[in-house]
Amino acid sequence: MSAAGVVRGRLVGADSGEIADGVIEYADGVITWVGGASEYPAAEELPIPGDDLVVPGLIDLHCHGGGGFGFPNADAGGGRVAAAEHRGQGSTGLLGSLVSARPDVLIRQAGILADLVADGQLLGIHLEGPFLNATRCGAQDPAAIIPGDPALFERICAAARGTVRSMTLAPETAHFAELLAAMRRHGVVPSLGHTDADAATTAARIADAIGGPITATHLFNGMPGLHHRSPGPVAACLAAAGRGDMVVELIADGVHLAPETVAMVFDTVGPDQVALVSDAMAAAGLGDGDYQLGALDVRVREGVARLATTDGVPGAIAGGTARLLDVVRPDSAGREGSARRRRHRRDPHAGPGARARRSRHAVRRGAGRPARHRPVIAAAAGARRRNGRNLMEIVIRADEHEVATTVADIVGGYVARGNAILGLATGSSPLGSYQELARRCRAGEIDFSTASAFLLDEYVGLPKEHPQSYFSVIRAEFVDHVNLDPARVLSPNGEAGDIGGEGRRYDAAIAAAGGVDVQLLGIGTDGHIGFNEPGSALTSRTRVKTLTEQTRKDNARFFDGPDDVPHHVLTQGLGTIGEAGHLVMIALGAGKADAIAAAAEGPLSAFCPASVMQWHRHVTVVSDEAAASKLKLADYYKYALANKPAWQSF
């Protein structure tokens, strides 16, 4: 881009949908105006509309280099050149991918790439190895592939200074469980790949990782092919992606995969479960020639990179030479796959800092800046959301006791993994579940000592020592009855001097903790969750809300009278709630029947805030018979539960 100008075309935003004839105005690399052409202040000076498609910046989760330099062996200067090559071609953010190498090399390169992350050149580091299966090494040095070594992983993470975002490992590698636990502690997304595992082993490892994001590294490549009698890891990964449990990488460059294969995956699992990646190496952006990928020599001929050989036999494909924009571009020769047919859908790679939001005066200053310090876990986890299908699971139990048992089973599963982040709600709905969890804790069946928790909301102006503050209520009803450290239970500060700033602070605290693993929710008779009353924005954040008179009347039973109920509350917004990994809604009694029917089977609407769950990737509604009495598909929900596979958890 030059210093200033305008771009006109069809604008596709990450959140705002599509503007058929849109305009972006920019100056000095910063977007200064976004909106419809008819709304542009100097509309008469606009260029004649063409067929350009304008999309948010792309995020490449798997990239080994470009511009003649590879991240596995480049110094800081070379790394900057590689990052700039991709940034100049539409990838506003990328992970720098390393390959299997000697430990000292991995530790050295992790330190170099960490400096590039700190400088805003990269979003983070992707470790593609060394804990792979050497029989499926692809273009990696088999001599550098070793069994899983948690101690080495810790050394690499220390050198990377918290910038490792993803690691590819084989499901069958040694010490998988210890590595998975370490990855979760460090906020590293596990990615299964370079594997010879069977379907059962792969499915088991995916099940172990449920509760956090997980991906598959370049599906089909570096693993056995799909066979009708030996389905292998491909089938397990496709099944998991179809359930919303996994995001699968595809190198849709026309070399690694046939366009028909790419189309099949999109049609099978949906676009929100696919992350298109470049897997680019040093040759990206350059012509044919000789290059390196780690310690191995690579020869590029006619745009295809292969390991160099001396016997004339073509070597293994050694990464890509395309940039991510080449992969997703609808008119790329032979590569359109499903991208052309679905380009009206949101781009799962869209970076939050590059979003074009529709507004009459449109202003998202700074939106065009290169990404800096942006947590890429959101790119993997967020790509799993809003897949256009209702993945809500309705569990109908006979009575309140069975509901509490089911909810305790779900929460207990997260707590058992260690370091769980719980989202706690107050009110009558979760009370039985808290009592069951407390019973299990007293019996030694569950240990909350490593868990933390965030509360949904707090009354504004009510001291936290007040017996009806949610801070006090959650302690009296739950925290004081289990071995959960009260200091690790956080709530919004309803007495903060800057209430607006408190909402932002609270959201930041949740994000800094790594996000909520499992969020408990009740539902109001009008469909509200938290204190997001009808009409609340579906993307709202933690903020002050004015309570409706009906909600104040509902809560009057906890106070001396209706007049004592505060008028305002600081509550997590629907957008904040939706960032939790798993939403568990508890519904009890016939009074909730209309609300549950509207939330689960009605249209997505701000006038039933709980309906936003239909967009979430992992929702379990646990209801008694009375609350489920108006569900049209109640019989089906019961049938599905009765026939739920033994391996499938809630």
UniProtKB/TrEMBL annotation:
It comes from the Bacteria. Allosterically activated by N-acetylglucosamine 6-phosphate (GlcNAc6P). InterPro entries: Amidohydro-rel, Glc/Gal-6P_isomerase, Glucosamine6P_isomerase, Glucosamine6P_isomerase_CS, Metal-dep_hydrolase_composite, Metal_Hydrolase, NagB/RpiA_transferase-like. Keywords: Allosteric enzyme, Carbohydrate metabolism, Hydrolase. One of its GO terms (molecular function) is identical protein binding. It catalyses: alpha-D-glucosamine 6-phosphate + H2O = beta-D-fructose 6-phosphate + NH4(+). GO terms for biological process: carbohydrate metabolic process; glucosamine catabolic process; N-acetylglucosamine catabolic process; N-acetylneuraminate catabolic process. Residues 329-371 are annotated as: Disordered. Pathway: Amino-sugar metabolism; N-acetylneuraminate degradation; D-fructose 6-phosphate from N-acetylneuraminate: step 5/5. The record marks 536, 543, 545-546 as: Part of the allosteric site. Residues 53-285 form the Amidohydrolase-related domain. Residues 329-339 have a biased composition (Basic and acidic residues). The active site is at 457 (proton acceptor), 526 (for ring-opening step), 528 (proton acceptor), 533 (for ring-opening step). It holds the Pfam family Amidohydro_1. The keyword Glycoprotein does not apply. One of its GO terms (cellular component) is cytoplasm. This is Glucosamine-6-phosphate deaminase. The gene is nagB.
